[in-house]
Design a protein that fits this description.
Blueprint (H helix, E strand, L loop, with lengths): L1 H10 L1 H9 L12 E4 L4 E3 L9 E6 L4 H17 L4 E7 L5 H10 L5 E5 L7
Parallel strand pairs: 3-4, 4-5
Antiparallel strand pairs: 1-2, 1-5
Length: about 120
């Protein structure tokens, strides 16, 4: 488990640098945001923090980097899913909850899929 946390931290290191550019210090909690479940119910991203390790991926059905990362995310969820919560937050650019739902079903994404309708989480 400790190795997983270290590997996840190392893989997210460039994102940590970006967070510093945005005014967040490494190790601080990101501001929370409200997104939606695919059936339209509000979900507070902060509700995932502090209970178990969590990996939140911001993605889009049209994103080539996201598609390239997909097999690794599926493999990581299969290997570590009992210890880590995997959440996918779909951005709302050129997407709808229904499009995201169809994509997630077709590709059997093993993530809890949420939708950032207003861009609150990606901002």
């Amino acid at each position: 488990m400790r190795r997983l946390v270290v590997l996840l931290a190392l893989s997210l290191f460039p994102l940590s640098l970006r967070a510093q550019e945005l005014g967040l210090s490494v190790g601080s909690r990101a501001p929370s945001a409200v997104v939606q479940s695919l059936d339209g119910k509000p979900v507070e991203l902060a509700s995932y923090v502090g209970k178990t390790p969590v990996l939140i991926e911001f993605w889009a059905t049209w994103c080539p980097n996201c598609k390239e990362l997909e097999p690794a995310m599926v493999a990581a969820q299969k290997k570590y899913g009992a210890h880590v919560k995997f959440v996918g937050v779909a951005v709302s650019v050129n997407q709808s909850p229904e499009l995201v739902r169809r994509y997630a079903t077709k590709h059997a994404l093993p993530l809890e899929i949420l939708f950032d309708r207003t861009g609150a989480a990606t901002d």
